[in-house]
Amino acid sequence: MRLSRRRLLFTTAPGVLGVVVLNGCSSSSPPSSSGKAAPEESPVPAASGAVAGEWRRVAMSSVSAYILVRGSEVAIVDLGTPGSAGAIEEGLKAAGADWKSVKHIVLTHMHQDHVGGLEGVAPKVGAAIYAGDGDLASIISSKPLKSVKEGDEVFGMRIIETPGHTLGHISVFEPTTGILVAGDALRTNAGLAGSDPQYTADETKANASVRKLAALDVKAILCGHGQPLVAGAGTALKDLAATLQ
Ligand SMILES: [Zn+2]
User: Fold this and answer.
1) Å from CA of 71 to ligand 1 middle
2) Domains and CATH numbers, the chain
3) pTM for the whole structure
4) Which of these ranges, 35-49, 80-94, 120-134, 181-195, has the smallest mean pLDDT?
């Protein structure tokens, strides 16, 4: 909460400061009910570029964003840490796109290493920005956020509610390709695993979310921390889920 206020003070124009701070206070109680906003690290940044289907990865120092390019339109899932706009712009350029192409931004959860880039990206895009209802109030944004829930469709992507890592965590599943963008519901930085217990708000829910994802016909897993898993992903996920019964 204090951190959020500092960010508001830092980023908001003086004229609207009071109003914004008021909103921030009223919309973010109770404090720390939904997990710990902690940095998560994966030691080896891997190459950016095409990973699976029409998806591209923007690999940053500790986290990845994913870009879905379809014709002249682009969706981005997660925006990295504060200051990530430059890396994402490079990713867009490499995909033959630019900020104007970006029509949809999906934020899997409220942690700063996934939404921190929003401050830099929001002014550059006319995109709709989506987040899960449970995390939405905890995300600082200069533009309105749209709440999404289980089964909603965004740009051909199905929203899957995967609470546990945070209570409002969502994942994105592309049914036509079996590509799953799992945020921090899954990680691959030490073999395929669920949410890192150190940063998990509700471990029982996190395990249930892994089992829920394993029931999908998953062909590739793109997660926030660790390499994309594009071979044997469905089997690996089912095996993992079986250990969490
Ligand atoms: Zn996280």
Assistant:
1) 30
2) 46-242 (3.60.15.10)
3) 0.81
4) 35-49
